[in-house]
Amino acid sequence: MVLFVVLPLLLIVLYALQDGSGHFTFANIAKFFTDRDALATFAVSLEVGIETTLICILLGYPAAWILSNRELNKSAVTIVLFILPMWINALMRTLATTELFNMLKIPLGKGTLIFGMVYDFLPFMIYPIYNILLKMDKSYAEAAEDLGASPLKVFTRVTLPLSMPGVLSGVMMVFMPTMSTFAISEFLTNNKVKLFGTIIQENINASSWNYGAALAFIMLLIIGICSLFGGGSDKTEVEGL
Hints:
Elements: H1 2-16, H2 27-32, H3 36-68, H4 77-83, H5 90-103, H6 110-135, H7 139-146, H8 151-180, H9 183-189, H10 196-205, H11 209-230
Helix pairs in contact: 1-11, 3-6, 3-8, 5-9, 6-8, 6-9, 7-8, 8-11, 10-11
């Protein structure tokens, strides 16, 4: 943990708070807020991240619910089918998806980027929700049904609130990687759409280590803030019917 997590993070902070001569400064971080290209890229990344996450929730929650329902899913093979794509390197899947769009003569752009993002990150939304639903005490739903609640009310007042920790975990596992990735956007848009990870990579490749580290540090702060707000939902109370 110290060697592969703590030390790299400390190096990022150290470079972010230094200039080229090694002197302490906040100029690198301040530069981000005056850099129009970086701010525009951040806005695009935020938009792509939100859209991808919402689509993953809309597709992932029903899939997780079906997989966790033993009456609808009686075979473990179905679960394996969702795992299989994760056995292949994400970069190879992205290259294959790009080639598929090229074969179908579909122009590469934001639409193909979001498609590729959803394809790559959908399993990371499904499995946290699936694990929560699978471990959920079914007696809560049965008690609600015995008290006369309709199936829709059982879902909205019991199942959905109890599954929110899984949804929030899925959001964290989809939203943050979506914003910070760069290889997927490069291949699926021919670099027409740049994400926040792209400008970090470009600055590092251009030997602008300090500004690149500052951008990475800002990304870390965003991740930390999101984790802080999403970490307090381990216990979810169900309102009375």
